[in-house]
Amino acid sequence: MASGQLSRDEALECSHSRHACHVMLYSDTASQLFDRIPIRHVVLMQMRFDGLLGFPGGLVDPSEETLEEGLVRELLEELGVAVPVSIEDHVASSFAPSRPGSSSRLILHFYVKKMEEERILEVEKAAASTAVDHGLEVLGMVRVPLYTTKSDGGLPFFLSHSFIGNARSQLVDSLLRLHLVSPEELRHALRSSQRKHSEAARDLRAALELTEAQRR
């Protein structure tokens, strides 16, 4: 087992830790971008209130509910529709990266659930229209572009964004494990994403210089 990884049972024995559950919902699709670029799969993530990308879910209390019951409750608040999740959907449990000043460790439980595309569409509509957290804790659902355009748009740009906690590694691991993207495609996307990080840093420095100029 990888460093920091726990079995579900080991994680539940950590009574002094906090627990959070998140799920990657996905489906197959025959749709194409511009009628020529296969989209292949729909993978849902969300833009959080703090501007970071993450998966739907949240904190749960194993002393009051099972992990799956807590996750289903969180999904109802964030997606506006009931999405059943079972133990069979559980993929991994691990400690979240440590944060300065935090008095307790956070254990992240990650789930993956495949759905029919029609159901995914229902989730997207409900998340924007009936979910109580829409516009508050959740700013909106987003699809992960699993394609790479000739100009390295799509997945490379998406991976260059900022993610909460382990979300980026959870996404990459799931894409590989489920064969949603080939290792070669993902390797290219990650390398391109690193270059885009450098370009973004230069853009941020230029923007900062503009604000400094306004103060003079």
| Distinct helical segment count | 6
Q: How many beta-strand elements?
A: 10
Helix content range of the residues, please? 25-40%
Roughly what is the average pLDDT, rounded to an integer?
91
**SS-based class:** alpha+beta
| Biggest sheet record | 8 strands, mixed
Whole-Å distance between the termini?
A: 56 Å
Q: Report the uncertain regions.
A: none
Beta-strand content estimate: 15-25%
SSE succession:
EHEEEEEEHEEHEHHH
Any idea what the shape is? globular
Radius of gyration of CA atoms, rounded to a whole number? 19 Å
Describe it.
37% of the residues lie in helices and 24% in strands. It has six helices and ten strands; from the N terminus they run E-H-E-E-E-E-E-E-H-E-E-H-E-H-H-H. It has helices at residues 8-12, 67-79, 117-129, 155-159, 167-177, 183-215, and strands at residues 5-6, 18-28, 32-33, 37-38, 41-48, 53-54, 57-60, 90-95, 106-114, 138-143. The termini are far apart. The relative contact order is 0.17.
Q: Which features does this protein show?
A:
alpha+beta; 24% strand; eight-stranded mixed beta sheet
Please write out the topology.
Elements: E1 5-6, H1 8-12, E2 18-28, E3 32-33, E4 37-38, E5 41-48, E6 53-54, E7 57-60, H2 67-79, E8 90-95, E9 106-114, H3 117-129, E10 138-143, H4 155-159, H5 167-177, H6 183-215
Parallel strand pairs: 2-9
Antiparallel strand pairs: 1-8, 2-5, 2-7, 3-4, 5-6, 5-10, 8-9
Structure, briefly:
The protein is α+β, with helices and mostly antiparallel strands. It has helices spanning 8-12, 67-79, 117-129, 155-159, 167-177, 183-215, and strands at residues 5-6, 18-28, 32-33, 37-38, 41-48, 53-54, 57-60, 90-95, 106-114, 138-143. Strands 1, 2, 5, 6, 7, 8, 9 and 10 form an eight-stranded mixed sheet that branches. Strands 3-4 form a two-stranded antiparallel ribbon.
